[in-house]
Give the backbone structure.
Amino acid sequence: MPKDDIFAEPLLQVPDFSFDDQVADVFPDMIQRSVPGYHTIIQTIGKLTSRFQQANSNYYDLGCSLGAATLAMRRNISVTNSNIIAVDNSKAMVERCERHLQTFRSDVPVQVKLADIRQQPIENAAIVVINFTLQFLPQADRSALIQRIYQGLKPGGLLILSEKFISNDPTANELLIDLHYDFKRANGYSELEISQKRSALENVMKPDTLVEHQQRIQDAGFSSQTLWFQCFNFCSMLAIK
């Protein structure tokens, strides 16, 4: 697995973070060392797929990156006439996702699309996954996407939403951020890497509070929702139509 050393050397000017070829090449290492609980989230997406799968349905991975959530769903779908649609707006990610999926044999077809998830139709869906993607969309566009997902889900359908979040309490927020940085230090990132990565993300990733996420889900019409995972300032929620 190629090591993420993108920010290991001092940069005269830190560019905005983008999911380009350089990031795509080291993404598995980057996300495992940067996102606490990522492996648990992916594993649980598989378990939830087993529980909420419906025959004759579509399954969506919005912001699929290299396809980890897509593979978790694919491995756990056992009902007939199931289709997975994996969508990402990064050409580098889509190309690698397609190659990655080809190494795993399955009867469940996957369509990998290079597209803006805000423009992707959601139809006849049993499950929709948005894994650490909503936070990169303009905040004004987030509610409309959740509403469209709700409308495209079948009764009993499931939304899985994983995000980095901010706390309403400044003291708690600072503590969670510090704990996350300790996590990154423990995984081998230097102070320079942490600082430069933070600067790169500053203008492109705008996290919401948990309350904002929960209100958005409620406003969309979901009958049930819960926070099922949290580690520091990272979480995963599920909502049932």
